[in-house]
Structure formats: C-alpha cells, structure tokens
Amino acid sequence: MTIEAVRTEGSTVRDRGGDADGGGHAPGARSAGVGRGRAEAGSSWLLCGGCRTMIYGRRFDRAGRVCADCGWHAPMTIDQRLDLLLDAGSRRDIEVTAIDGDPLEFVDSKPYPDRLRAARAATGLHDAAVAVRGTIDGNPAVVVVMDFRFLGGSLGAAVGEVFTRGAEVALRERTPLITVTASGGARMQEGAIALMQMAKTSQALGQLDEAGILTVSLITDPTFGGVAASFATLADVIIAEPGARLGFAGRRVIEQTIRQVLPDDFQTAEFLLTHGVVDIISPRAELRATLSRLLSVSSRREDGIPRQPARAGGAVVTDHEQLAARDPWESVRAARRLGRPTTLDYIGMIVEDFTELRGDRMSADCPAIVAGLGRLDGVPVVVIGTQKGHTADELRHRNFGLPTPAGYRKSARVMRLAAKLGLPVVTLIDTAGAYPGVEAEEQAQAVAIAENLRLMAGLAVPVVAVVTGEGGSGGALALAFADRVLMLANAVYSVISAEGCASILWKDPAAAPRAAAALRVDSRELLRLHIVDGVVVEPDGGADADPQRAAATLRVALRAALADLTPLDQMTLVTRRRARFRQFGVPETDAAHHRTDETDETDEASHSEEEGATR
C-alpha cells in the first residue's frame, strides 16, 4: 500500500510511487511510493498506507517515516535511509564504474534507454543502489542501499556492480557489510545479464564468509525475486522492518499458478520470523542500536578477559572428593525446580549487549533454544542454550525446553557464525532431551543432533558448555561437545531420564530413584567419571534460592575457562577437544597412551607451523 499525498489546498491527490513494471517481476507487490503534495505555505499532509489516517508530513519525517498510530513503515529514499543509519558526517560514497548499457536493445512500450533516463530524472540516481562507507555509533561499515523508486529497485548490471564493489571494499578493509534491500526482482530489460547478477553478488558474499567478515541484511518492503534469492538472504544476520515482505515469487503469481489461498500475513516479516527465515524484526527507532550491538560484538576486541590464565577460585570444584555425597534422586528433583535460573535469566545477568538470533533459515524458529551474540565481561561471545521457563505459559511456549530439529539447526547456524567471526561459544544446557514428536522425526531429529556433534568436534573456536539443570540424553550432548564441560552442583546429566530407565529396565516408573542412583546422574559422580571437568558451586539452597549470586559464580567460572582456552591456537583447541571425547570408555592406560599420541601430533604440527612462519 502506498502513501497518498494530499495537498492542503485544493482537492488534488497524487501517488508518485514506483512499481515493478520497470524491470522487477513481483506481480502483486504493493507500490513503494514516497511522494507527497505540498501546499504553497510548505505544509504537508499524508494519508498513512497502513491505517489510512491523516499524518502531518514534518512530524512523520521526524518519526523516521513511521506512522505513530499503526506503526506502518513508509518507504525511504537512499539519502533518507543513510541519514537514519549513519553517524552524522560519516558518509563517504564509494566510486563505482558507471554502467549504462542496453545489452538486448530492449523495447516494450518504450525503449529501455528511455526508461533509464526517466528514472534518473525522477530520482536523481544513476541506478537503483548506492554504496558508501560510514560509521554507526563509531563502528565502521560499508552500506549498500537500494531504492525502489528506480525501476522497482530491479537488479541489473549496475546494481550488481554497486553491490559487488561495496563487498570488495568491505573485504579489502575488513569492514562489516550492511545491505538495505528494496526490489521487485531481476531487471527483465537486461535478460540473462540481469540473471547473472544473482551469481555475481552471491559470490561476493561468499568471499566475505571466507574472510570472516560480518554481513547484515536489512529487508525493507518489498524485497522479491532475484534480490531475495541472492544477497538479501545470504547475510549472517537478516533483519526486517515490521511488515516488510520478502519472497521469491509474488503473492499474485503464487495464487494464480497454484490456485492456493494464502494467509493474510504471507511473506511478511512476522510470517518469516515464525518460519525461521528472519533473525530480528526491528522497528526503525531501534535499528541503529541493534546494528551498533552487532557491529561492536563482531569486532572481536578482547578487552575484558586477561590474556594470562585466570583461576576461578572457589567457583569451580575439580576434585570430586571435595563434593559431599548426596542422594542422586534429590539431585534430579533439585535440577527440575521451576525457580532455577533459565538460560535467558543467566544471559540477562551476565551477558552484555546480547542480540538474539532466530530461525534455522529453512522452516522454523524453535523457542526451546536461544542463541545470539553478546559480551561476557567485555569479551565478544556467542551464547546458545536450551530454554524452559518458570510458568505454565512459558513452559508451553518454550516446548518445555525440548528442542526440535529447527532448534539444533539454528544452534548450528549460530555456531558456524561464531567460527566465521572467531568468537568463543558458551552453551547453557537445561533440557530433558530432544523433542520426540512425529514432526521432529519427519524433520530428521536424529540427523540434526548428529550434525551438531560433528560440527562441534571441529569448531575452531573455544567452546565451554555448562549443564545448568537437566542434561538429558543426546538432546543435551548436541550442545555439550566442548573444550570445557562444567555443570552446576545441583544439575544432572544422563543418557536417559531416571523415569525412562526405570520404565524400560525395571518395568516400573516408580523405580526412578533407584534408576537415578544406578545411572550416577549427580555432579559428584560425573566429576569422578571425568564426564565433566568441573562443578560450579551453588548458593546455599540452590541456584533458585539466590539467582544473582548463582549467576555471579557462573560468570567467574566462564571467565576463567575462556581465559585458559582463548590463547590456544585453532589446531590445539580442536585436537585437545577430540582427544577429550576419544578417551571415553577406554581403559585408563590406553586412554593415557592416546592422549600422549595426540599431544605429540599437536606439538609436531605446531613445530611445523613455526618453521613455515620462520621460512
């Protein structure tokens, strides 16, 4: 729906919105008009494209072109967008070779060159995108912005060159790349040349991935076709404005092709968030702060944790003899208490500048797993954890902390981002296990867990896992393949729940206490078996008795673990992690032999690297 400009004098109503006819092909896409009428006195009134109420133009501009009544986000020009995003005075345009061709000598109702001249006259732009350098709260970035007014923001050779040039500058200067999209699709008047821009731009993003440079895509309304199927959706983080639509085929095309009735919110940001495509929906007023957090965390500055190893003091017990023996069933009951801090509780108490990322980019966002970027005592980290809740409503919303395949795939996606950016990973685990429903099996739950295990085995960044409550089966292990595995004193960790074991082996669920003892699920026994490397002490009465104190102790334990691991090179990290899990189930003498072999191999590899560097 467009803004309709209403003159304050007379009855003329004008709609200066662009459309996709200029080259994009998203039939059914709403026009993204930005025009307005002005009275001779300079006043201006607009009709909101959302709620259809009258808006005073100057107030509307001061509000970032967002309707105060319904929250509708109006289209913005490139200059308006850059003024909104960048620090004042930081904009520096990037020079791009001007492309002004007509490769097909294309003519529809008018020759393609005539369309280009008309679009340039109307917008003051050479084409539908601009690339600039700038800063956001002092954080440098390269920003590529599209404008729908120019032939529907269609992707042709000029737009492809602007994006690729921006990506090349970001690569050379090792600066994050932010893209703001608004497009109806590939430019039809350039035929297969336009189609090739999808490959060209995707390749440029792949090079940024290889170089470990953060990419962020801001989806504005509308983003369709070739842009949606290339650089708009390949970024590390996808942010969308409220109500923005993103899709490959337009709504009208889908309805006419398959004769299917589509939901009202189809292809909107809200629809895509639920279906795992979008990470964040950010209103314009919050966008700069969101981008600033992401850019700051991705900078990898290590200004919090000291480079020399720091010890956790009394926060972590590493000798099982120092832990009092306790009834395993009491540990199970304590681990399940609803008052215990959840992953989100701990994040709120110990992680600064946290930005949650959502979705598996395939089908769904699993609320039972929380993942995102933040800072632990100033150090950038990725935090991933299972999430239960404290109330019945929270538990239902979070699926009782039972992750679906989408949850494990979301965690894998965020771990790969951590590896790309060189950020340590912290996982917090409190789950009875992976969700066992029919839908989970249809979506390959076993495969999702197995792929997480393989990924974590070779993750080239420090990984610290903490079992904060229940550590249930493979569903917990899928987040616990780590360099350092800790557990809270009242937590439990087991191959199966005590009730499940009792039902299978004793044929009686009431035998759960006996099963818990046999499985040795408590922290003291797991430390004795070296399943965990340390036990984080809890306040008297448990973590739920004093959550703030429990969180402070956990922070100290995590800080010490990361201080030990951060100085290690990638090969040492991965080799030691694999050796840690290699020895489980092997007699101690054989395990020691394997550890010696692994150490020798690591030393040889490190020596070879040093020799190569010397040469």
| Percent helix range | 25-40%
Give the domain tally: 3
Helix-strand category: alpha/beta
Shape annotation:
elongated
CATH class (first level) name of the largest domain? Alpha Beta
Please report the distance between the alpha carbons of the first and last residues: 64 Å
**Fraction of residues in β-strands:** 15-25%
How would you describe the overall organization of this protein?
Helix 4 runs parallel beside helix 5 (191-211) and helix 13 (405-421) packs parallel to helix 15. The protein is of the alpha/beta class. 48% of the residues are buried. The chain is elongated, with a radius of gyration of 28 Å. Helix 16 (473-477) links the parallel strand 18 (463-472) and strand 19 (484-488). It contains 22 helices and 21 strands. Strands 13, 14, 15, 16, 17, 18, 19, 20 and 21 form a nine-stranded mixed beta sheet that branches. It folds into three domains: 44-74, no CATH class; 75-298, 2-enoyl-CoA Hydratase, Chain A, domain 1 (Alpha-Beta Complex), CATH 3.90.226.10; 318-581, 2-enoyl-CoA Hydratase, Chain A, domain 1, CATH 3.90.226.10.
Which terms would index this structure?
single chain; about 625 residues; 2-enoyl-CoA Hydratase, Chain A, domain 1; 3 domains; 9-stranded mixed sheet; about 15% strand; disordered N terminus
List the helices and strands and how they pair.
Elements: E1 4-6, E2 13-14, E3 45-47, E4 54-56, H1 57-62, H2 78-85, E5 92-93, H3 112-123, E6 129-136, E7 139-146, H4 157-173, E8 177-183, H5 191-211, E9 215-224, H6 225-228, E10 237-240, E11 246-247, H7 251-258, H8 269-274, E12 280-281, H9 284-298, E13 316-317, H10 328-335, H11 343-350, E14 352-357, E15 369-376, E16 379-386, H12 392-397, H13 405-421, E17 425-431, H14 438-442, H15 445-457, E18 463-472, H16 473-477, E19 484-488, E20 492-494, H17 498-506, H18 512-519, H19 523-528, E21 534-536, H20 547-565, H21 570-582, H22 588-614
Parallel strand pairs: 7-8, 8-9, 9-10, 9-11, 10-12, 16-17, 17-18, 18-19, 18-20, 19-21
Antiparallel strand pairs: 1-2, 1-3, 3-4, 5-6, 6-7, 13-21, 14-15, 15-16
Helix pairs in contact: 4-5, 10-18, 11-20, 13-15, 17-18, 21-22
